[in-house]
Amino acid sequence: MSTNSDPRKFWQHLNEVRSAESPSELDDEFATELESKEHTGQTRRHFMGIMGASAAMASMAGCIRRPVENIMPYSKMPEDILPGVPNKYATVTHIAGDVMGLVVEAHDGRPTKIEGNLEHPASRGGTSGLHQTLVLDLYDPKRATVPKKGKLPQTWEATAAFIKSHFQKRSGRGLRFLSGANPSWTFQSLAERAIDERYRGSKWYTFEAISSDNEREGLKAAFGAPRTAVYNLSMARAILALDSDFMGTEARSVAMTADWASLRDPDKYRGQMSRLYSVEPIMSLTGSNADHRLRLKHSEIEAFAFQIALELRKDGKPIPTDILKAAPARTKNLGEDAKAFAAVVAKDLVANEPRVGQATHGVVVVGPRQPALVHNVVAAINVALDAIAGPVNYYDDIVRGPRKAVDQGDYKNLAALTKELNAGEVDTLVIFGSNPVYTAPGDLNFGDALKKAKTVIVLADYEDETSAHAHWTIPRAHFLEAWGDAVDQVGFGAIQQPVIEPLHGAWSDIELLARVLTDEPNVDGYSQVRKLWRAQLSQTKPLQDADFERIWRKWLHDGKMEKPLVASMTTNQQVHKGAKGLLAQPPVDTKASSKNLEVIFTTSYNTHDGRFANNSYQQEAPDPITKIVWDNAALVSPTTARALNIPPSSFIGKTETTKITLEVNGKSVDMPAWIVPGMADDTVAVAVGYGRDFNGYLPYHDNGVVGFDVNPLRTMAAPFMAAGGTIAKKGEMYPIACLQRFGSQTPGFGYNQRPLVREATLDQYAKDPTFARDGDIIHCYTGMTDPPDECKDGNGGSIRGGVFEKKTVDGKEADYVVTYPGGGEDGQFRQLYDGPTQGATYLGPDDYAKAVKADPSKKDIKYSPHQWGMVIDLNKCTGCNACLIACDVENSVPVVGKEEARYGREMHWMRMDRYFVGDENNPDVVHQPLACQMCETAPCENVCPVQATSHSPEGLNEMTYNRCIGTRYCANNCPFKVRRFNFYNYASSSTQWKGLKIRDDKIVDPDNDNELPHMWKNPDVSVRFRGVMEKCTYCVQRINRAKRKSKLAGRHTQKGKEAIRTLEVACQQVCASKCISFGDLNDKAETPFSVARSSVRNYQLLTELNLRPRTTYLGKVRNVNPALGAKKGG
Amino acid sequence: MAAQSKNAASVFPPPLVAGNHTFTSVTETVCRVVEEKPNVNWLLALMLSASIMAVLGGSVAYLFWEGTGIWGLNNPVGWGWAIVNFVFWVGIGHAGTLISAILFLFRQKWRTAINRFAEAMTIFAVICALVFPGIHVGRVWAAYWMLPLPNQMGMWPNFRSPLLWDVFAVSTYFTVSLIFWYVGLIPDLATLRDRAKGKISYWAYGLFAVGWRGAASHWNNYERAYLLFAGLATPLVLSVHTIVSFDFAVSIIPGWHTTIFPPYFVAGAIFSGFAMVCTLAVPCRKIFGLEDFMTVRHIENMNKVILLTGTLVGYAYSTEFFIAWYSGSVYEGFAFVNRAFGPFAWAYWIMISCNVITPQFFWSKKIRTNMAWTFVMSIFVNIGMWFERFVIVATLHRDYTPSAWGYYTPTIFDISTFIGSFGLFFFLFILFLKYLPAIAIAEIKAVMPQADPHWEGYQKHEESTHG
């Protein structure tokens, strides 16, 4: 108390002077009775204080990491952070080994949006819909957050100590590892060290439920090593897809879609395009985009492949003799139609006239579900077509895991592991992120086998089916939380750069493996990854620290390495050696009938193999073909449905469909049936990845499970197709949510097809380039040649005041050309009144100066630097949904859940319309993304009583959320029905993960983690409360950002103009096929947008309403093979 | 007496008041209802309607708490029962002012027996109607932004929006109808004041009677004011439903965007309004013993109006179809075929049978003078007119882009709100019947035979109270 520094000591009380001698006397004098010390030395108050503090601390210890909420100005600005300006980081991730280079947008250190990396060969700026929602998984409150021993939470220290003690002294005996496909070289090299050095005798298995086993097996026979086909469709002028969904669920879908789309521009290639044939049992996304589609049963695809081989042989192409010899027997059951189709296709594949761009090859793509023999035969066909090192290249498989471990294939791996488990040979099993208890076929009973291992350690994303059997569950780091790397199938390496610290604390695969290898000095991912790549680079030449740092930084910046790490195969390494053992199996003939169905297990477009089942955006994104959300269904063709007495689903009121019992392989699942036009008969397709039980959590439904788990129906022997399925009607209806109830453009009652999606064949397009505009119901426009009768007024003039003139157009003598004086851009309509000429009111820099010069007195000319517009090329759009999901994420569009979706209250700003055309068995399919069309004469605007929706000078139809009172009149008056209303408070955090229970307030978040789901939201857009209308804004936040950038750089400078030209809206940016272009109508420079806008295929929807939408479409052109005639398919 | 009345009948057209009433007995008959102690039946009826009104209160409270999602609205169909009910109630609210104002201007003396009654119905119906635009919006706490109130937010309503016109049209109509009704009530309120025995009733009736003493100057002012209000109310009768119809007609939705809507809506409104008056009058005249004042002739006249307007409405339906076909607009054409044969065909055919076929029975004098028939028919017309609005609103389910098509199914809360609005209506109406003279005492005396200066009826008619 007293200080020695002060020589004069002041005192108040005599005892104080003597306090050094007897301190207790002073305390006693002032002590109250309550405070009097007891003999134990503890006071009651002290005890209470300690208890209170303990309780407070205990409750604090239970808290998770939350965003710090201090409001502090950046008096010292952190480096690289500007408030309100998001940072972007390049990184990489993979889904089941399918690598994708990404750029992650982070607001104040919080990742919110994922984009493709323009530099990365797998992305080229686009991503799939799945990648878009990965950021939601990061903030998923259901993630595994604490390490658990059994069910007991453990500290991270205890977990580390356990790993250390468990592995330190052990050998490889009885030690097994199981991982999914992992393209990380750091991980692979650590794994190899584990099995080859540290734990000799241990074994490594890999398992992916959606495996490419068949491909590897087939190509091993062909090329002597298990390989993977990598296609480059930008070199293919004719493509045959055999049961392949390369645009949808298969690996490298983004790159393949981009390549395919690059040859789908009839304008660029002077009336030429590539041609896509699809032969498949289901209606896949790829099939829906095919120029010709043939539906064949799964088991008939093999015969079709052999038939193609036979046809090629007729053409003198070299086909291995064993395949040729087997072909007649294997094709004898193929129908005549299919044979004829094959003949035409084969002819087209070999046709050697150069058709489009640089592409000169025909190529055959085959899907992973097809048996090994088909892959083998297709490889032979591709070799015969001389397609090797052109549109297809057969690479060594490098993306799956430790290279020595993966060769025997995923399903054989899992079978071997199960055998060992059952034999009690496995002492410790370490599982890296896989969930085989759910994904493995039912006949394996992997869950039971797992119980026989003494110690199961699972590094888990969720507390899932597998972790339920684990002795230790360790939370696994999200890719945005951990260092790593990934080398894609063609050898492009990239560093996985984390964007945020682990939210709950978590280990990456690399970190756990490094800990398991107990002799590792550094167990953090960063050191591990750097060490590996440093060693890789040092292999060729010695490397200085500074040099490595420079290279490392460049890698991080670019999101990829400069050169491929794996050389592509040369053609002489890809000589086909025949089918060898594969032909021993007799030809498949399942004798399918409606009583003996072929059951096909497809990959879910939304949950993949089930790993994204807890992602609400994925669950609410419609299946591209069925448009079902929050469910999977047994898909059957219309004919089969009739045979099985399954009525079409009711679309009146809330959607219901027939519930059936699907039985195959002695197991059965009750699930809803759904009729899909264009499917092969006697086939039923069911998607895996549904029916997951999140360990008692209720993520969506009252019963806690979304959809139906079909894995029990699968077998290890034939995991992707099972013959002998039966369907029995249950007699009850199942409530199902389908986002598009009416699937035809023909409205019914004898009315003609509505000209929403306009298409022509390539030949028709050549003859009638204006087909898209001719499609208008009232189609008399300026520049129209040979106007039809309905455009004539009967007095030698044109209706609505147009003038006919004899003219020569494009060197051709035309009868008449119509001109409309005083009309707008196309002059379709004249104004009844003198009003502001729509769209011309606000002129851009050039036009404004001209107009003012021409008539300085004119006062109603207004200036606006930009006029925004969008063009969607229906010829390139595949309907993959990536734009829809990207829009959801960019604009924090709320999820509504299945029940609300059944009402028709989904909130997607973009609707992905899918229409079937023609015969129900062989329909054509068209896809049309439809968001707010930004009508210049928007009907929604004038009806709003409070001016909550109004037009900006830049042509945006803007929504002022704060002013909206929710009369819904605007939505009623929208002819496209693209406005979305918040009937409930959908934006509240909990609904993102539990959409359904919003109707009653029983939502209790088990983790009390309500803040977390807010974190993914884009801070640049407003959160919309209930009762507010919302819709597409053309990503106005991005526009404004670009405008600021442009202004800072100087609007008239090249840099300022670049800022506007490089502006990409969310749907445009994500699109793999680049079918969406967005830009400024005032910008007279040639940009992809201006080229598209001036295309002769450019048309508006509902022209006759004079809406003058700013979003326009380019007509679809099908490259129909004349040999197959107008009728597509067989 | 009997000879006298027989005599009278031969000289004058059938009397508008039957039963050889004197001025005193008129006053007595009408006022007795007000002055008597409330009987059990009345109390039961009041309680029943109050409990139904509570359903409305509960539904609306839940609506405010949860949001418009509790209704069956969805994406293509952004308006549902709330708007249907609004138009339905506004339509019913037509008859009162039409009877009071237009028939007054046309010197249709038979109106006097039913005008008070019909006006009250108008006001209560418009109150019911006004509930819906207020509650159907997503953010009710901001609904007042529709009004042009100066505010610090610098907001101003959008005068191009038909919804805003609606706000003005309906509120103006309500205000004028209320004042018109009140002005007409003043002499009768004075009568009640003069007869009042209780202090409260004396004070209350006195307050609202605003010092009416029945002086000639009062009568002079009164008649002028009444005439002026009648003149003012008449165009409103036509304008209010014209403007309500603009909610639909100004849009671009096929099936909504039709120029026939204003006259067709007005005809429909009169049609439904008169039907509702019949629905109420037929039992009321029986229960309260007012058969002498609301005679069969009144009912028959109203049935004739129903027949006329019903036929007009039917004509409008056929014109819509003709124009949809004749215009050549495929969207319009489809919308109407879809109405008749699409998923909502059931509603369409209910509408047609109730609105077009039912009134045709009134060609028969036997039926239109039969109270039971009238009552049943009027109910059918009410149902039909509700469905007419439903058919129009539900047209939203299929418009331009087939991919967006849907369907509309009401939820329990749609239904409870609608039923509850009847509770509100009847609650007010039952209170009205008990506490205000259901028949315009002063006016009806003017159309009695006694009011005729040349009348030589009953031997002694010294009592000439304007009581």
Summarize the structure.
The complex is a heterodimer of chains A (1130) and B (467). With 1130 residues, chain A is α/β, with parallel strands linked by helices. Helix content of chain A is 27%, strand content 19%.
Q: Biggest β-sheet of chain A: count, sense, barrel?
A: 7 strands, mixed
Mean pLDDT of chain A: 83
| Shape assignment of chain B | globular
Shape of chain A: globular
**Contiguous runs where pLDDT drops below 50 for at least 5 residues of chain B:** 1-12, 460-467
Number of alpha- plus pi-helical segments of chain A: 35
Would you count the extended β strands of chain B for me? 0
**Residues in helices of chain A, as a percent range:** 25-40%
Strand content of chain A: 15-25%
In quaternary terms, these chains amount to: heterodimer
SSE order of chain B, one letter for each helix or strand:
HHHHHHHHHHHHHHHHH
Q: Radius of gyration of chain B from the CA trace? A: 24 Å
Distance between the termini of chain A: 100 Å
Order of strands across the biggest sheet of chain A? Answer: 5-4-16-15-14-6-7
User: What's the mean pLDDT score of chain B?
Assistant: 87
Q: Would you give an account of this structure?
A:
- The complex is a heterodimer of chains A (1130) and B (467).
- By secondary structure, chain A is an alpha/beta fold.
- Chain A is built from 35 helices and 42 strands.
- Chain A has a 7-stranded mixed sheet with strand order 5-4-16-15-14-6-7, with helices on one face.
- The longest helix of chain A is centred in the first third of the chain and has 18 residues.
- Chain A is globular and about 120 Å long.
- The chains are: A alpha/beta (1130), B mainly alpha (467).
- Chains A and B meet through strand 33, helix 29, helix 30 and strand 37 of A and helix 7 and helix 12 of B.
